[in-house]
Amino acid sequence: xxxxxxxxxxxxxxxxxxxxxxxxxxxxxxxxxxxxxxxxxxxxxxxxxxxxxxxxxxxxxxxxxxxxxxxxxxxxxxxxxxxxxxxxxxxxxxxxxxxxxxxxxxxxxxxxxxxxxxxxxxxxxxxxxxxxxxxxxxxxxxxxxxxxxxxxxxxxxxxxxxxxxxxxxxxxxxxxxxxxxxxxxxxxxxxxxxxxxxxxxxxxxxxxxxxxxxxxxxxxxxxxxxxxxxxxxxxxxxxxxxxxxxxxxxxxxxxxxxxxxxxxxxxxxxxxxxxxxxxxxxxxxxxxxxxxxxxxxxxxxxxxxxxxxxxxxxxxxxxxxxxxxxxxxxxxxxxxxxxxxxxxx
Length: 345
Ligand code: FES
Fold this sequence. Notes:
The protein has 345 residues and is an alpha/beta fold. It has helices at residues 16-19, 22-27, 106-113, 149-158, 178-182, 193-196, 201-205, 220-229, 279-285, 320-325, and strands spanning 31-44, 47-54, 67-72, 78-82, 93-98, 119-127, 136-142, 162-169, 188-192, 212-218, 238-242, 260-264, 269-273, 303-308, 311-312, 328-330, 335-336, 340-343.
């Protein structure tokens, strides 16, 4: 989800070309409602795991490795957390939350106020980071980025695939789920930075391998480094998930300064979106309901089908192929190359 190296990374793989309506492909069957914290546990310094069950007692919808849920906090903050428990468990979803002192307050609220028995609004699951079949997987996790990789590893193991994990963190004490990973033996290499320095990506990834897929989640610096290492790998071999938006191309010259006209075909409404206002905000102001969450072009909540017009993609999520197809956009950040867009809203 950043400026592509020679072989463009696949930020995720299910998209419009493969599965019809892009939003449906990513969203699948969603739950939206109140969840109860049925277990809470500190799993590393600054990291708690939460197990959530639907407060109504109903089973939760199925999900696949790489999926995340939106957590809607009482403060109004919406955060995404990767599901990291067993895929087959439809009674509970497990997420892990890192306390982020410099964040928007969501993780701190969870750490300080959310106890067992507490409730919060959740929706999802949605999957922007699906695991594709492969003979060999090279996983790279940094810090809390281990969470989406846990169910991927379980699936790779169950499928009999060859796999290995390189897992880094600031210190061993800050790295979550180490006891769980120990069971996998030598396939897992744990490298706390205070003991080993930066991760040895060259040693772990090796040379480009047509049979292998690389999955990486972690801080931006790690993802950037993995992308650089995989520059010579086949297109689509690298799959990453970011916590924060990549540096997105800034529009040049007059392009940023133009108002655009956006027709919402299903609603029979046409809006003028001035410079400085996102299409998402303009749509919301017009009273047309649309899902959104991160408002940074990373979560996929606001993905909308494009019926006419050329999109100026500014997100950190869509693949190059999806951008080229020009039939979907993330309206929280992307705009139009021309003056007009027609959206399926
Ligand atoms: S709201 Fe997250 S991508 Fe638009």
